[in-house]
């Protein structure tokens, strides 16, 4: 929370999406965010998963899950509607190891997500899809694309699954503005001095349908919070839109 609150104070975002909150709904710190002028939309559970969208504007409505009545998935996806803009915040399964049941579940989750978009929106809808995708899409998105190819998070089956969703109508907003930047959003705690050594992954993304992507004016990754005291192993990825 101190890292998040410091960042909010500095950047004053209109909308901030969080993943893997790991907190039950009755323990979510909504009062703290409300005192900062934010409305909170969230769904969580004890110890695992959890998504939250905090926003200056109160959404006209919000929903959780993939639209298939799977209660277990509701703490992984939150959708908030703001006038003619839809914000979809996802915490996609990590997948553990290629070949494991968890990995197969991850690939299937992307398929279910694609159906969610197909059933609820069109590529002409102004949708921004964000979150921890647990996939680095391109060689430039990992510190060693040769060594890591085939690892969970940088596996051909994951690339195909992510591409299927992207091809529905999404653009990687970060890459519009930073087409050749080798920057990361995640550094593994288990690797000593991973941030200073540049041993990271770009697993967190902001994607938008074309009509919304065309309104983007900048995008960046703020690495400084990852160097703060007791940080998350992920940091903030940001996009700015001009309406």
Q: What is the name of the CATH topology of the domain at 92-241?
A: Deoxyribonuclease I, Chain A
**Helix proportion of residues, in percent?**
10-25%
- What is the makeup of the main sheet? 6 strands, mixed
| Helical run tally | 7
Query: What structural category characterises the helix and strand content?
Result: alpha+beta
Strand order of the largest sheet: 4-5-6-7-11-8
Task: Point out poorly predicted stretches.
Answer: none
Radius of gyration equals 17 Å
For the record, give the distance between the C-alpha atoms at the N and C termini, rounded to a whole number: 30 Å
Mean pLDDT equals: 97
Question: CATH H-level name of the domain at 92-241... which superfamily?
Answer: Endonuclease/exonuclease/phosphatase
CATH architecture assignment name of the domain at 92-241: 4-Layer Sandwich
> How many DSSP E strands?
13
What sequence of helices (H) and strands (E) makes up the elements?
HEHEEEEEHEHHEHEEEHEE
Q: What is the approximate shape? A: globular
Q: Roughly what fraction of the amino acids lie in strands?
A: 25-35%
CATH top-level class of the domain at 92-241? Alpha Beta
Short note summarizing the structure:
This protein is of the alpha+beta class. The protein has helices at residues 2-11, 30-35, 101-120, 145-148, 156-166, 173-177, 210-213; strands at residues 15-19, 39-43, 51-55, 61-64, 77-82, 85-91, 126-132, 170-172, 186-187, 200-201, 204-209, 216-222, 236-241.
Characteristic terms for this protein:
243 residues, alpha+beta, Deoxyribonuclease I, Chain A, 6-stranded mixed sheet, 3-stranded antiparallel sheet
């Amino acid at each position: 929370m101190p890292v998040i609150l410091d960042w909010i104070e500095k950047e004053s975002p209109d909308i901030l999406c969080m993943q893997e909150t790991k907190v039950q709904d009755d323990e979510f710190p909504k009062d703290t965010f409300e005192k900062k002028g934010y409305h909170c939309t969230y769904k969580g559970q004890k110890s695992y998963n959890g998504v939250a969208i905090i926003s200056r504007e109160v959404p006209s409505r919000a929903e959780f899950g993939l639209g298939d009545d799977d209660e277990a998935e509701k703490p992984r996806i939150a959708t908030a509607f703001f006038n003619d803009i839809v914000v979809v915040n996802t915490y996609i399964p990590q997948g553990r190891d290629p070949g494991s049941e968890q990995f197969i579940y991850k690939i299937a989750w992307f398929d279910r997500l694609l159906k969610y978009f197909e059933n609820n929106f069109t590529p002409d809808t102004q949708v921004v899809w964000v979150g921890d995708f647990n996939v680095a899409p391109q060689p430039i998105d990992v510190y060693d694309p040769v060594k890591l190819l085939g690892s969970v998070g940088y596996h051909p089956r994951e690339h195909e699954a992510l591409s299927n969703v992207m091809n529905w109508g999404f653009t990687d907003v970060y890459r519009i503005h930073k087409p050749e930047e080798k920057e990361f959003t995640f550094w593994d705690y288990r690797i000593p001095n991973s941030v200073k050594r540049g041993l990271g992954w770009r697993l967190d993304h902001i994607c938008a349908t074309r009509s919304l992507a065309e309104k983007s004016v900048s995008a960046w990754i703020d690495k400084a919070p990852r160097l703060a005291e007791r940080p998350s192993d992920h940091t903030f990825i940001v996009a700015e839109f001009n309406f």
